[in-house]
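Support reply, case 0932

Customer input (verbatim):
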Amino acid sequence: MIQMGSFLKIKGNKEIMKTNMKTIGLIGGMSWESSIEYYRIINESAKLKLGGLHSAKCVMYSVDFAEIEVLQHQGKWNEAGEMLARAAKNVESGGADFVVLCTNTMHKVADEIQSSIKIPLLHIADATAQRVKDAGIKRIGLLGTRFTMEEEFYKGRLTQRYGLDVRIPDACEREIVHRVIYEELVLGKILQRSKEQYMDIIEQMAGQGVEGVILGCTEIGLLIHKHDSQIPLFDTTRIHAEAAVEFALK
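Our regenerated output:
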């Protein structure tokens, strides 16, 4: 339940509601194309819940994704983790009450980030898994970068903590999904041909028995929308952003 708090009187004796809203700490820039969506959804959600001119209290540290991408593909995850841990410390010192890492792939270093700060990290896989379970879905498809689809830091968490049966595309399809993310979506390129390829992959997964698909990269929601598919699509950007507002208003 949202705790509404007290009312403040400002100039002209107008009363406004003073909420007990926590300050959201956003680590963005991975890529900034999806970080924009986080900011928009968070503030739209806060306004929907609180009404009037309310918006979310948040601070953001935006990294240079070119630096992160090089470390990813060189396998230098420790260095990337150190970089994001510094970003987390910055949002903590900036007044954040909890951290939202605006990317799926870099949750590979979530533990390193969490251990560097005193405030909680709101894990994107936890928020997504809960939404999938709430929908009554057990067998779920996963699209994302090659790291997210193939490594255990993400799908292993979905399986071990939430009991989900996670399926990923075959190797050729995984390469298509990964390439489109890095060569198009993070650059703001939204191409119809790539959308068709993604939808073909989703249809293939549906034919293999998946009941829904997690859009496990924060840029995929720029290309694919829920009305494009006959099975449920779980946009991790929207889910994570909405979970941040819920947590801020607890």
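We compared this against your earlier run and they match. Two observations from our side: Strands lie at 6-10, 14-18, 24-28, 58-62, 98-101, 139-143, 165-167, 212-215, 233-235. Residues 6-14 have pLDDT under 50 and may be disordered. Please reopen the case if you see a mismatch on your end.
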